[in-house]
Each structure stands twice: as structure tokens, then as C-alpha cells.
Amino acid sequence: FQIPAPDVPGWYANNTDIGFVPPQSVQSVDIVCHKSAVPGHDYANVQAGSNIMLQWLTWPESHVGPIMDYLAPCPESGCTDVDKDDLHFVKIAQQALKLKPGIASKTDWLKAWVIDDFIHGDFKWNVQIPSDLSAG
């Protein structure tokens, strides 16, 4: 949305599409933070065991499905210039379908996904960082 990209801990990709990575590319580095993504110019210090809130600027309503949270340790040189080929991710959390009053996944499955709450919650998502996470 902005060139040059602001100094934020989030990754940046100057792609004008809605984030689609074709199935034949899911084993490539394009799946990491999107096609041609580069690390943010900043980082956030977070304590193991703490909860953090992540926020997106927007989200396409067609992006329906689970929300999965991954982490990868940064090298000693830091996170702001890491090559995404060198990162080794581990999933720390996920949510998918959610029981909601008056919503049945068989009849209204789009609203049954947790992403519906995310979209209607100002694109905010809370994540608990594992308490046994090593520094870095």
C-alpha cells in the first residue's frame, strides 16, 4: 500500500493480487509471507508465554478458511535482512471452524469459519507465544 514500505515488523510484498499462490508453488519459498516477500525493517520483542495481537489493514472476504500461526527463529544477524529460504517454521496455533449460535457449518459454512470473526473484528488476531520458546 505504500512505497517505500513503512518500518514495521511485518513482511512486505509489492503484489497487487489478493495473495493467491498457485498449488504448484506451495513447496516453493513463495508460500512464505507471499510471492517476492521481504522482511520488515523492524521487529518486536515478545516474551515467551505472552499474548500478542496482530492486525492487518484489510482482508479479502474471498479468503475463507483456517487461521494458522507459525514462527521461525531468526539468525544471530537479526530478522530484518533474513533470507526466507533459510527460515524453518513451526506451527504454534490454528483455528478453523467455530461453533456459533445460529450458524451451522452444513448450511452457512462461510460464516462458520473463524476467519469470519477475524474480518468482523477489524482484522485483529490474538496469538499466544509458546511458554517454552527459546530466545531469538
From TrEMBL:
<dbReference type="Pfam" id="PF03443">
    <property type="entry name" value="AA9"/>
</dbReference>
<dbReference type="GO" id="GO:0046872">
    <property type="term" value="F:metal ion binding"/>
</dbReference>
<keyword id="KW-0378">Hydrolase</keyword>
<feature type="domain" description="Auxiliary Activity family 9 catalytic">
    <location>
        <begin position="6"/>
        <end position="136"/>
    </location>
</feature>
<keyword id="KW-0479">Metal-binding</keyword>
<dbReference type="GO" id="GO:0005576">
    <property type="term" value="C:extracellular region"/>
</dbReference>
<keyword id="KW-0560">Oxidoreductase</keyword>
<keyword id="KW-0136">Cellulose degradation</keyword>
<comment type="similarity">
    <text>Belongs to the polysaccharide monooxygenase AA9 family.</text>
</comment>
<keyword id="KW-0186">Copper</keyword>
<keyword id="KW-0503">Monooxygenase</keyword>
<protein>
    <recommendedName>
        <fullName>lytic cellulose monooxygenase (C4-dehydrogenating)</fullName>
        <ecNumber>1.14.99.56</ecNumber>
    </recommendedName>
</protein>
<dbReference type="GO" id="GO:0004497">
    <property type="term" value="F:monooxygenase activity"/>
</dbReference>
<keyword id="KW-0624">Polysaccharide degradation</keyword>
<keyword id="KW-1015">Disulfide bond</keyword>
<keyword id="KW-0732">Signal</keyword>
<keyword id="KW-0119">Carbohydrate metabolism</keyword>
<dbReference type="GO" id="GO:0016787">
    <property type="term" value="F:hydrolase activity"/>
</dbReference>
<dbReference type="InterPro" id="IPR005103">
    <property type="entry name" value="AA9_LPMO"/>
</dbReference>
<keyword id="KW-0964">Secreted</keyword>
<dbReference type="InterPro" id="IPR049892">
    <property type="entry name" value="AA9"/>
</dbReference>
<dbReference type="GO" id="GO:0030245">
    <property type="term" value="P:cellulose catabolic process"/>
</dbReference>
